[in-house]
Design goal:
Number of strands: 8
Strand content: 5-15%
Shape: globular
CATH architecture: Alpha-Beta Complex
Number of domains: 1
CATH topology: paralog of FGE (formylglycine-generating enzyme)
CATH class: Alpha Beta
Helix content: 10-25%
Structural class: alpha+beta
Distance between the termini: 21 Å
Radius of gyration: 18 Å
Largest sheet: 4 strands, antiparallel
Length: 296
């Protein structure tokens, strides 16, 4: 069943534009399958790579006050969503409790999902990750996927890539401000999601020297609303805030990432307010994502 127009609108797509006729989807899927561009599930069970595009770091933008009484966490029951991690209610919207895992992304690929749900992703030829996850990593965050993969997964799951708390894309000037849905969910307990003081043992930062870890492994790395996990460390996470740069077209748009990954320096980069950008087609081995969704 095709994603609803409302979900595409909430995720920043071109609502009302007949950009993806169903016949085109079928032809595209057949062509991709015949060319071997879609991997089998057997092919889908990293060291950090250089970020594509110019990086923007703003570790002080989180000074804006976040309302810590805006709502109670209620896993699942009060949130829309058809697949993926259990969403948690955060005031007026919901956010996934963990990064999307390898197993959950495999389910998405098994449906042979349509490509190019929005015009900005028309360059896509496959949703397969650039690096195949190792066997036995089904509960790890899916990484090596680009912004368009994250966007399309969230739409498929009946959710949307986190952007503005009111839905839709987030303007770059509002990143790490109360209008930023990802940041607001992270910062309700303090600068580091689990509190106001940096704890190198809490999350999967560089001190562990462990690479990625399972999405819900570390009991201290929870917050700003339990049971939301790994909003600091583990994998960087795409969110819906993209800016056109130069004349390279949508593929080189600079899109936002939050979290600070296992490969980033400690302290100031392992904080809710940390953000940077990468080109829309960047698919590094320390970049994952989670989705947001509407409150029921």
């Amino acid at each position: 069943m095709p994603p609803s127009a409302d979900i595409i609108r909430r995720s920043g797509g071109a609502f009302g534009t007949p950009y993806l006729p169903y016949v085109g989807r079928l032809v595209g899927c057949l062509a991709l399958c015949s060319c071997g561009l879609f991997p089998s599930l057997d092919d889908l069970a990293g060291d950090a790579a250089t970020v594509g595009g110019d990086a923007t770091v703003d570790a002080t933008a989180g000074d804006a006050t976040v309302d810590a009484t805006a709502g109670d966490a209620t896993p699942g029951a009060e949130c829309f969503g058809d697949a993926g991690p259990t969403p948690v209610l955060v005031g007026s919207y919901c956010i996934d409790s963990t990064e999307v895992t390898v197993a959950q992304y495999k389910q998405f690929l098994a449906t042979k999902p349509a490509l190019s749900l929005i015009a900005e992703c028309s360059f896509k030829v496959t949703h397969a990750p650039d690096i195949t996850p190792p066997n036995g990593h089904d509960d790890y965050p899916i990484t090596s996927i680009d912004w368009c993969d994250a966007h399309d997964y969230c739409v498929w799951a009946g959710k949307y890539l986190c952007g503005n708390v009111s839905g839709g894309s987030l303007q770059s000037a509002l990143v790490s401000k109360p209008q930023d849905a990802w940041f607001t969910a992270c910062a309700r307990n303090g600068a580091y999601s689990y509190g106001g003081t940096y704890d190198p043992s809490a999350c999967n930062g560089p001190e562990r020297d462990a690479g990625p870890l399972p999405a819900a492994l570390l009991p201290k790395c929870v917050g700003g609303v339990p049971p939301i996990a790994n909003m600091v460390g583990n994998a960087d996470e795409w969110f819906d805030s993209c800016t056109r740069v130069g004349d390279g077209g949508a593929v080189t748009d600079q899109c936002g990432r939050h979290s600070g990954s296992f490969s980033d320096p400690a302290g100031s980069l392992q904080v809710c307010a940390f953000n940077r950008t990468g080109s829309r087609n960047t698919a590094d081995s320390d970049i994952g994502f989670r989705c947001c969704s509407d409150k029921r």
